[in-house]
């Protein structure tokens, strides 16, 4: 029932995303930061997702990007990004998705990420693997960073810290290591899980960006930590998600121990 509702809620949000995609006169406003957009589609997707969850689990806790925390006294918490990749969405770039995860007693147990524009539905269940459109997926086999294909993202407001986003990016680019920037953290993580990318790192994410995607990587056989190699929590900002084999080396590149 839990997973069925997760699938239905994710599909309900994705139907809204697809309906608004490339629509003229889309209402767009700006949140805190430069070009941190929210559109009427984000709100409509969120409404469809929450209504679907509430119809079956009226007493579950919900954390959703645009509505914030809908606090309930429950061991279950749904974590929702109604559109991840909103800047892409608003520009007609079909790299955006709906991301929904379920946490129980502080542990992520289910995750779903759906990009209806290219019909890719990713699903993960703790202990039961990850799949793309029903077929099991696995992380890549790459063993060294020098031959890896990486992906990253940048925060809306630039983060001026030592070993910040541009310094790390520069390190890789100077050595000719490809680092892509898709603009959707949930899709970045799913593409690591599917073996398309060998690693993904980002300095500042929110829980809804990564909650479903990090479970996808773990269940596809990968490793996810913060930049200090601590067990990953979506409630802190840093993420390093890899195929596991390049993880230790990636930590060195990010800290500047290797360049
Ligand atoms: C953003 C995307 C992007 C990441 C940003 C996120 P949004 O989410 O995941 O890839 O770099 O940090 O905020 O705003 O499109 O939901
Ligand atoms: Ca997001
Ligand atoms: Ca969003």
Automatic annotation (TrEMBL):
Entry EC no(s): 3.1.3.25
Coiled coil regions, renumbered to chain: none
Residues engaged in binding Mg(2+): 65, 81, 83-84, 209
Keyword terms of this UniProt record: Hydrolase, Magnesium, Metal-binding
Family listed: Belongs to the inositol monophosphatase superfamily.
Source species: Flavihumibacter solisilvae
InterPro entries assigned to the protein according to its UniProt record, in alphabetical order: IMPase, Inositol_monoP_metal-BS, Inositol_monophosphatase-like, Inositol_monophosphatase_CS, Inositol_monophosphatase_SuhB
Recorded catalytic activity of this chain's protein: a myo-inositol phosphate + H2O = myo-inositol + phosphate
Annotated SUPFAM superfamilies: Carbohydrate phosphatase
Class of the enzyme per the UniProt entry, highest EC level: hydrolase
Name this protein carries in UniProt: Inositol-1-monophosphatase
Any single biological process term in GO: signal transduction
Co-factor requirement: Mg(2+)
A Pfam family assignment: Inositol_P
Superkingdom in the source lineage: Bacteria
Molecular function terms from GO: inositol monophosphate 1-phosphatase activity; metal ion binding
